[in-house]
């Protein structure tokens, strides 16, 4: 990246990144991380709630994404000493700093859907599929 007419790189946790977007995508990139974060943006969720909200993700992939997001300090995990164990996931303060950006990206996606596609009621979709 070029800042003040000088080529620069970012070094973070011993890893080199060629630009700020590369850093951001390292933390939240991929198919599922932003979706998981989207569902955690307003309230804590249990694993089963996230799985229900994101039906196309496998349990293994959800577990992996949660572990990576927790390792990076973006989400937290609270274990309740119950039988069976209860675990809740939530955005950390660091993770909450992503909310404005995620809301902008979602707004862009909604606008794109309106312009180039359509937004339909899920129940309506089920009815037309059965007919």
Secondary structure elements and pairings:
Blueprint: E1 2-3, E2 6-7, E3 10-12, E4 15-17, H1 20-28, H2 33-40, E5 45-46, H3 47-53, H4 59-71, E6 75-80, E7 86-91, H5 93-96, H6 99-116, H7 122-130
Task: Give a verbal description of the structure.
The protein has helices at residues 20-28, 33-40, 47-53, 59-71, 93-96, 99-116, 122-130, and strands at 2-3, 6-7, 10-12, 15-17, 45-46, 75-80, 86-91. The chain is an alpha+beta fold and 131 residues long. It folds into two domains: 2-97, Arc Repressor Mutant, subunit A, CATH 1.10.10.10; 98-131, no CATH class. The strands form three sheets. Strands 5-7-6 form a three-stranded antiparallel beta sheet. A two-stranded antiparallel ribbon has the order 1-2. A hairpin with a 2-residue loop joins strand 3 (10-12) and strand 4 (15-17). It is flat. The model has no long low-confidence stretch (mean pLDDT 92).
């Amino acid at each position: 990246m070029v800042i003040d007419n000088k080529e620069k790189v970012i070094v973070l946790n011993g890893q080199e990144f060629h630009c700020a977007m590369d850093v951001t995508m390292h933390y939240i990139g991929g198919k599922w991380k932003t979706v998981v974060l989207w569902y955690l943006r307003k309230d804590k969720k249990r694993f089963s709630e996230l799985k229900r909200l994101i039906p196309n993700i496998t349990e293994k992939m959800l577990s992996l994404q949660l572990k990576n997001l927790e390792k990076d300090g973006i989400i937290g995990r609270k274990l309740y000493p119950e039988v069976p164990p209860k675990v809740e996931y939530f955005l950390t303060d660091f993770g909450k700093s992503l909310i404005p950006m995620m809301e902008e990206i979602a707004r862009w996606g909604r606008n794109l859907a309106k312009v180039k596609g359509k937004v339909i009621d899920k129940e309506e979709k089920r009815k037309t599929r059965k007919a």
